[in-house]
Amino acid sequence: MMSEPETTAPTRGELTAKAIRQAIQRIEKGRPKVINAGRKLSIASVAEEAGVSRATIHNNHPGLAERIREAGNRAVRAQRDEKNAALRNLRAKYTELRQEHIRTRELNREMASEMATLEVENRRLQSIAESKKVIVFPSKNTKSDT
Asked: What distance, in Å, lies between the first and last C-alpha atoms of the chain?
């Protein structure tokens, strides 16, 4: 005679573990039912989402507590890595801009020196032109009225 397989109802602990796992999944997917959607994955947020205490997760489900901590750490590491990459990009941009600034200052110094030289040359030529010994010849392009 074949006996019917006995179906046992899940224990309270199994139901709690299932609720915790479902809460973890909802928070990871960004679709929690109880807590705010932007909240990070933590034992406190999972406990609130699952409707259990943090102590229940810590004391009765240490494997799930570890899973939550690891997932939270992954998120923190990813955020840290993203910020470090942004910082590296900003440092590279700063270095590039600093080099451009140095080149611009050098160019500005060169132009100031050249301008000073041209001003001295211009004054020298003006003094020669204003001298009584200088005779101005008419330009070929100038039309004479005579």
From this structure: 143
C-alpha closest to that of 42 among 62, 67, 61? 67
Let me know: does 68 contact 24? Beta carbons within 8 Å: yes
Which helix H or strand E contains 65, and what residues bound it? helix 62-130
Give the CA angle between residues 104, 108, 112 to the nearest 5°.
175
3-state secondary structure of 143: coil
- Please say if the pLDDT value at position 129 is more than 80: yes
How does pLDDT run across 119-128, given as a tens digit for each residue?
Answer: 999 999 898 8
CA distance 93 to 82: 17
pTM above 0.70, yes or no: no
Neighbours of 52 (CB within 10 A): 18
Q: What is the pLDDT of residues 19-37, one digit of tens each?
A: 999 999 998 888 899 898 8
**Hey, is 86 helix, strand or coil?**
helix
